[in-house]
Write a structure and sequence with these properties.
Structural class: alpha+beta
Low-confidence stretches: 1-10, 20-27
Shape: elongated
Order of helices and strands: HEEEEHEEEEHEHEHEHE
Radius of gyration: 22 Å
Length: about 325
Amino acid sequence: MMRIFQRIVSLAALLYLCLIPSALSAQDADSTGSADHPLITHYAGSFIDGYAVHDFDAFRLPLGAAVKSAAGPRVPAKKADLEGKITRILYRGPEGRSTLEILRNYRSALEQAGFETLFSCAGDDCGFLFHWTLYHDEKQRLKNSRTSGGAFDIPQDIRYFAAKGIIEGAEVHVSVLIAFDAGFGKLSKRPVTLLEVIESEAMETGMVTVNAEAIGKGIDADGHFSIYGVYFNTDSAEITPESAPALAEISKLLARRTDLKILVVGHTDNQGGFDHNMDLSRRRAESVVKALTANHGIAANRLTSDGVGYLAPVATNDNDAGRAKNRRVELVKN
């Protein structure tokens, strides 16, 4: 598959020029196997201390200050649940540069490239322990070097922004977290930047299929069946085109069994506010009902929609894999 950044060398050059400071420090050695992202070059004088690329994974993009969740950990008051290729790069910047200067360079370069800033904050405005939303648990930490895993343990002068843009028709999100590491000796004088780029290309589908027969058997056996093939745009109730096969199988079942009535129930993970997730889950269930009635001719009196947010998890919400299982549409026999 052609990667969406193969033809943007000129954009990368533009960003590099925007990020060159007036004086450069000596370049430290980058972590083995690491590289700048094709879209965004490093701030000159920086070196790569941590690096990871995931071809397809989930990502929670903070769009609000950190708050305490019902389960205890710090979570963003508002967030976007993303999926796609994720590139994570931890930079150690040159001495003598402030977090504000580095943030403004990244932000200015992205805005020149047509990106929209979704959220930004600094210091106390980011909320207590904001860095925990991006770099706290074991999965979040990059372990390429003896210093990368402990980045942001004692952050000072913290700054953050998130942006969104369209590159060659694909949606791209960028997250930039910057601070000084107070507990790292010489490195404490060098700003640390966590750059994360999420390219929302469609995952390879057709690897697992759910047909009308399997849905029917599940409903008969258990009274309900979870559908994972219905997808929505980020933080939205708008159904994506990739959902068409799953919706077709649901409608096929209902067309065969004209006496069957179902509840369409929306489920979310526990990231974000309770009220927001309840509302989002209800609206997503309503969208499925509308699609089945408007596009597949299913009688409206056979379908009822509602949402329960994160009240009925089927897996842990403590990691991305579990949260992905909890984000689903469930069909319940009525």
